[in-house]
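S1.2 Input.
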Amino acid sequence: MDCAGLTLLIPEKPDLERDEVALAFDSAGGTVLRLGRFWDPPPLTVEAVRVYGNETFCLVLQERLGLALQTPADDLSTTVPSKFLRRSLSKRRLDQVSGATFPLFIKSLVPKQIPSRLYATAHELSDVSSGMQPTSELLVSEPVCFVAEVRSFVLDGEILDAALYEGVASLEDARDFIRQLVAAVPQPRAVVIDVGLLADNSWALVEFNAAWGAGLNGCNASRVLPAIVAASVLDNRDPGSSSSKSSQR
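S1.3 Output.
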């Protein structure tokens, strides 16, 4: 990949995976800029900027620089056919969950409003959501146990690389499942897809992630670099994406 003329912004703090991406970007002819005060970035040509880092870092830069980041829609997983989920999963308001049968795996649609985890009881959920509006939206899932998990970076429907980061399983089987999933579900052109193996030897979607913020989890930085670079370039025709250009310039 040729990154000449492009600048990759990453957090100043050293990180093994980010350093691998930075090295791949530099080797491809790009310029890497490590930012400490990322909330006050230097003047940059926005069209040439790409980002890779944690959510706060990237989203603050999106606002400060007027970037356009490709991010899977928060509720994208609810559009996935059941044969790829292997569990019930729905979007519900907070006030609709209290009467449900627990335990449930719950995450807030707006990231980090509550911890994303398994809740044993409605009371346990109530304890951590006391400050939220009753109409706040949650993703609610039947709990499942994955015996193995695989991360994949996908660009334009093609798997750039995939790696087993938990447990033992056939990576080729996982790739086959991801290809079927990609063909069936509209999504951003650059996306990271995690899938898991269940005890009955069937594969299921774990979650979608933004390529600009997902860790490598064993994937090769040079192979997945095109997805990371493309994740900072918005195509308004992209399905399954919640990205939009910031109104701030």
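S1.4 Remarks. The first strand starts at residue 7 and ends at 11.
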